[in-house]
Amino acid sequence: MSSVFHRIPKRNLPVAVKGEGMYIIDKDGKRYIDGYAGGACVSCLGHSEESVIEAVREQIGKFAFFHSAMFTSEPLEELASILTTDAPEGLTRVFFTNSGSEAVESAVMMARQYFVEIGQPQRKKVIGRRSSYHGANLTALSVGHQLSRRAPFEDILANVFHISPCYEYRGRQESETVEQYGLRVANELEQAILGLGPNTVMAFIAETVTGTTNGATPPVPGYFKRVKEICDKYGVLLILDEVFCGLGRTGTLHACEQDGVAPDFLTFAKGIAAGYQPIGATMVNEKIYQAIVSGSGTFKGGYTYSGHATACAAAIAVQKVLRGPGFLDHVKTTGNLLSARLNERFGQHPHVGDIRGRGMLMTVELVEDRSTKAPFAASQDLSSKIYQNAQARGLITHALTGTIDGYVGDHVVICPPLIVTSENIDTIVELLGEAIDAAVLEAR
Ligand code: PLP
């Protein structure tokens, strides 16, 4: 009997003993191709990137740990410099955390502290989006909207107002163009700000491309431009959460580059150190940084391990690979190939309603009936069946049940390490096809 408090104790977990590039090997010698980058986009460089392993070895040999409120370190300074050099416009400072949830929490705390510092303490409300995920601490659960994870905590979560997500497949009406749809859902932000009282709202938070709750869902063109216009009009800070979709995953360094917007805060985690060390970050603009520095002089958040030098050393090595010659071009090319293969395999599939995504972050949405978009009944637990069938065939993928305004549906997220080859893509799509077909048969 395991004494570990596993998050999903009912799941029969294989014991991972080794990683080799795109593969994970368990104790019994079974090989799994990693279609989910080590769990939610983390291992973007696969499991054997020597330059990162070496950087960790070298740094850990120098010192174990210094508190970043007492010392800075060369890796900490260098990593911040790398991240800010090619950041979206205006993002000049980086605060380090140990996870994506902490990065989100830090952004919310900084937004609040900023308004307190500049003498607008009445600005305390955050607006988020339904069907979003921003992490599992109480702040991140409050601003996010993954209903099943929020349920036991609803009564102790912060009061956050949630507007519609930008989810074209489910949200666009037939009478609307894509552009009209994007403007309509973005304009919900303005209505929410006006309803709550413009000078009481401090921030709006959104994933640039969603990753978990409703699968990989990119915004429609123009959506974030309108969101940014609205935020600027009412002095509301924009937090873009790129914990899942940032740092190369979508084919550009930052997903928001493709939407032509620069936020006030940008959060990262998974892609920073590619899972070789735990680390997250909140990037912030000079206006917010200076208000805190020239105000109370201290950010009141922060964590003991913020800016851990070994994690920073791993992250520097990862960031150098991501920015190396041809790397992002490889992501774009293989991302296009993944999209093409998914469309070939599932484009006419009777139980696939939508294939969407951006770069190396794709989703297949399952439906019982393509013409009505009706999902499988939640009691069928199709996602678990797909997950188990894939795992049995040696494919790690992420099948999940998402909730949006009462609708529950099944999605598979495909986001392999960014080093994926065209042969790997063929294998992933083939095994996924078998897993979905078998699951659908079981569900009937
Ligand atoms: N934000 C987004 C968009 C995420 O997808 C996640 C995790 O999946 C988080 C935040 C939380 O990150 P972590 O699990 O590292 O705390």
Layout: helices, strands, pairs:
Blueprint: E1 16-20, E2 23-26, E3 31-34, H1 37-41, H2 50-60, H3 74-85, E4 91-97, H4 100-117, E5 125-129, H5 138-143, H6 147-150, E6 161-163, H7 168-171, H8 178-196, E7 201-207, H9 223-234, E8 237-241, E9 265-268, H10 270-273, E10 280-285, H11 286-294, H12 309-322, H13 327-346, E11 352-358, E12 361-366, H14 382-392, E13 395-396, E14 398-404, E15 407-414, H15 422-443
Parallel strand pairs: 3-13, 5-6, 5-7, 7-8, 8-9
Antiparallel strand pairs: 1-2, 2-3, 4-10, 9-10, 11-12, 12-15, 14-15
The structure holds pyridoxal-5'-phosphate.
Written account of the structure:
- Keywords: Aminotransferase, Pyridoxal phosphate, Transferase.
- Its cofactor is pyridoxal 5'-phosphate.
- GO terms for molecular function: pyridoxal phosphate binding; transaminase activity.
- This is Aspartate aminotransferase family protein.
- This protein is 39% helix and 18% strand.
- The protein is globular and about 60 Å long.
- The protein starts with 15 loop residues before the first strand and ends with a helix.
- The site of pyridoxal-5'-phosphate has 15 residues, from helix 4.
Which terms would index this structure?
transferase; globular; 7-stranded mixed beta sheet; 4-stranded mixed beta sheet; aminotransferase; binds pyridoxal-5'-phosphate; alpha/beta; Aspartate aminotransferase family protein; pyridoxal phosphate; 18% strand; 444 residues
